[in-house]
Amino acid sequence: MAIILGIESSCDESAAALIGSDRTVLAHRLAGQEEAHKPYGGVVPEIAARAHVQVLTPLIAAALKDAGLVLDDVDAIAATAGPGLIGGVMVGLVTAKALAMAAGKPLIAVNHLEGHALSPRLADASLEFPYLLLLVSGGHCQILRVDGVGQYRRLATTIDDAAGEAFDKTAKILGLGYPGGPRVEALARTGDPKAVPLPRPLLGSAEPHFSFAGLKSAVLRAAQSGAHRPEDISAGFQQAVVDCLVDRLERALAKSSECSPPPFVPSVSRDLSQPSEITSLDFARDKRDFAKKPKTLVVAGGVAANGAIRTALEALAARHAMGFVAPPLWLCTDNAAMIGWAGAERFALGLTDPLDIAARPRWPLDPAAEAARGAGVKA
Ligand code: KG4
Ligand code: ZN
After folding, report:
1. Could you tell me which residues come within 8 angstroms of residue 55 by beta carbon, excluding any fewer than 6 positions away?
2. What is the distance in A from the centroid of ligand 1 to the CA of 326?
């Protein structure tokens, strides 16, 4: 069994975990920064980076102690190298590089989104490729066809806000505080989802993309009108998000076997014009393999913690005779276990990275994906 140290620092959670290649979570530690960002109603990048500097190394030491291990017992060190708030990403990546150099261990630069995308396979050993993945977090809202480690075809993205961002902004408008998702969900439980008429942007449109900016503006207008109870606005908003996610996934399901196979992207740092030692590996590039319809619907990312969304997606999967996998809640929001697991999946394929690898504020899982029509700079 290989043991991987995972490090996460791309947003407002500092985290360290020790993961076995047999899926054992030997230790996982997490330090949130909720209090530090609370006065600002959102994550302040500079404050986040400084907090990672303070807590990350003691957190790694604590995780090693929890697992009863020393650095020498670890087979590789995996850290988020992007995308995310660059100051924080640099703190985690440089920490991983220093440890890798000092201990003489290989470094694995993990795409944070790949961490989310593969996390369901840590929780569920029976989850096989290909699967259709709804990746919904504070920064991203994408539908991906996952054909293997490093093999992602993006079928849809948001043309403006991410779903988690819409939850956070709704919470801010309603004065619920930060982070918004869980608070909106809690308030929605006592509200009537039909009481406030709210739009479902892009519902029924041909491409499976998302849009949440118009919904957010409608929530603001409903709140400012003073005519509605906050619990009804919360319930109406959550129902609108559920309806959009389900409708867009229906569209993506129809498209998921029409698209072309994804390119295999081995690493951030490798010069892709040069032959790589791993191109000979037999990845599922065969056209017949790709024609296989995904048998499982998977949801990952922080918004996947939402109960109403999980219930609706489970029903959608059942309608399509597909399996449904959602990781446990602690694995949905940012954590280091998913980074350690993505590291373990990469390590098993011989995918390690050089010490001069760069941190990346932006790092798409499918670099060949076309920009969504109408997309602003956030896409
Ligand atoms: O994956 P994550 O921890 O960080 C990013 O990579 O963005 O996702 C955080 C997002 C936040 O926008 C948060 O409000 C949302 O996930 N979230 C939820 C819930 N729990 C967290 N949204 C809706 N319902 C929830 N229960
Ligand atoms: Zn995340």
Report:
1. 14, 31
2. 14
